[in-house]
Amino acid sequence: DAGITQSPRYKITETGRQVxxxxxxxxxxxxxxxxxxxxxxxxxxxxxxAAADITDKGEVPDGYVVSRSKTENFPLTxxxxxxxxxxxxxxxxxxxxxxAVGEQFFGxxxxxxxL
Amino acid sequence: AQKVxxxxxxxxxxxxxxxxxxxxxxxxxxxxxxxWYKQPPSGELVFLIRRNSFDEQNEISGRYSWNFQxxxxxxxxTITASQVVDSAVYFCALSPPSSASKIIFGSGTRLSIxx
Lengths: 115, 115
Prior knowledge:
The structure holds 2 protein chains of 2 kinds. By secondary structure, chain A is mainly β. Chain A contains no helices and 11 strands. Chain A is globular, with a radius of gyration of 13 Å. Chain B has a single domain, classed as Immunoglobulin-like. In chain B, the strands form 3 sheets. In chain B, strands 2, 5, 6, 10, 11 and 12 form a 6-stranded mixed sheet that branches. In chain B, β7 (59-61) and β8 form a beta hairpin. The N and C termini of chain B lie far apart (41 Å).
């Protein structure tokens, strides 16, 4: 399917476990992003990537790891999940240049619960 | 530091009423972009508009209009003749053009339109 997809859509895990959230986009956008959405905080940027093999920290990177070996994929890993990482996670992509600056396309989100 | 404030946490109006969502931002950049995104109950985020800081003209798109005032650092969003389908959480956001990744989102305003 065309667009941006996330998997799984829902995940329940336990404290201390490793969890990987997947993100895939079919537009060949250069930029990809991971956000978390928590009540009262809006969306906060966790990590972003400007291109394959180029990643950088956002506002709240602690406890998360990303990689981008291929342009279309941008997985987010919680190495040792904590309850504070219970959240809705959104992946987004963007051309990120010129007139496309800021026009990010979002995936449907992954609701993660850490028990 | 950059910051976006949406002081209205929740707004509820009756269908066909006009409603304005407030957005106030802080930035030291002389050039920047402002955005509005919509998050309907289904959860996905939808890009609505981007405004360059050099362009203070108001914009109208159907029942939606945006009022950008640099003097008060505000970028307010008005829905005219609201409809139930307008019910959503609306996010205002800000980014410097030099870094397409650094979108700072406000905490959002939940708009409920009652029939």
